[in-house]
Amino acid sequence: MTIFSKIIRGEIPSHKVYEDEHVFAFLDISPLSRGHALVIPKEEKATLDELSDESAAAIGRVLPRICRAVMRATGATAYNVLQNNGAAAHQAVYHVHFHIIPKTADGRGLGIDWKSGKLEPDAGRDLAARIAELLAAGD
Question: Which of 24, 36, 74, 126 has the smallest number of CB atoms closer than 10 Å to its CB?
């Protein structure tokens, strides 16, 4: 059980912005910017790849609506949606969650140091084929 499970059950107070049968959304208590919100499934799974199709679809249906509401409420003109899986990817709470982080005029929001590499054509072809094969097999 995580802190998010306790928030969903009302054992820990939160500033709820949305709730339905499958999804709960609330303001982050340690925001990077005004309006920083968390969108979580009620299904208790640690990482996105463990989430059921039903919960994933429910999040997909409401995430854009919540983003629009956060943008309108804060007046921000840009935002990031961040979702981390595993300790190496900076996940701190092991319950799937999406951050909606407005980028404000004063520069507050998510900072990213993007160190891109290069995808070689042969390696890309082979990797894409392997991923497609696994998807076709139901993995």
Answer: 126
Burial class (CB in 10 A: 0-12, 13-18, 19+), 43: middle
Catalytic residues: 97
16 lies in which domain range? 3-111
* pLDDT tens per residue across span 89-126: 999 999 999 999 999 888 889 888 778 899 999 999 99
Please state the pTM of the whole predicted model.
0.91
- The C-alpha atoms of residue 99 and residue 22 are separated, in whole angstroms, by 17
The CATH number that applies at residue 11 is 3.30.428.10
Residue 130 lies in a domain: no
